[in-house]
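User: Fold this; tokens only.

Assistant: Input:
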Amino acid sequence: MSEPTRIPAPDGVAPAAHYSHVVMGTGRFVAISGQVALDENGELVGEGDPDAQARQIFENLRHCLAAAGATFDNVVKFTYFLTDTAHLPAIRAARTAHLADDRLPASSAVQVAALVRPEFLMEVEAFAVLPE
């Protein structure tokens, strides 16, 4: 199995948090749509609770990855959409529960004015690469 390669950033610039600046993969590309904190019944998990919402989102991502034959080890990029950057620690804690320290994907975080429903505090999309 060909693993994604994490490449140090030019000039030795260290990431500001747990992510990689550059991740290169070869194989089949998997795009996971933005996941929100809805459970299998379509019910909101964690109204007003960023930690609970982040945990549910990463559980939803796990299910989506599994449906594609992937795991978090195959993820090469996350994009976080947050209504408040104060929720970043919740995202980081949920991510850490699913990722090994040597498997850190590239990441972007964006604060947005709103998501599709006002009770959603965050949304996370993922990109993965599976071996050929």
